[in-house]
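User: Can you predict the 3D structure for this chain?
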Amino acid sequence: QVQLVESGGGVVQPGGSLRLSCTASGITFAWYVMNWYRQAPGTERALVATIRRTENSTDYADSVKGRFTIFRDNAKNTVFLQMNSLKPEDTAVYFCNANRILHDYWGQGIQVTVSS
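Assistant: Here is the predicted structure, written as structure tokens:
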């Protein structure tokens, strides 16, 4: 059974930082492209960051470039999203996604709230 479990969310003030973690089980983690998505109320789920199997290959949404960093530890089956300089518009439910051809798995989501 495949599981993706996110952790590290919460409430933070504008300008603050959070680190999200997503630990996978039931898959060969190193074979998967790992993504973070987010969904704010009333909006569609949007891709935030991607890290490919080659660790130094990453992509970011324009809205988070320079503030967020995605990285992975294949030995621990975990992908991280370091979020700095957080803004109120970063408030959303964040989802971890594992993807490869014919296989696509999602975590349950975790709330991030940026508010003073």
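The radius of gyration is 13 Å. The chain has a mean pLDDT of 96.
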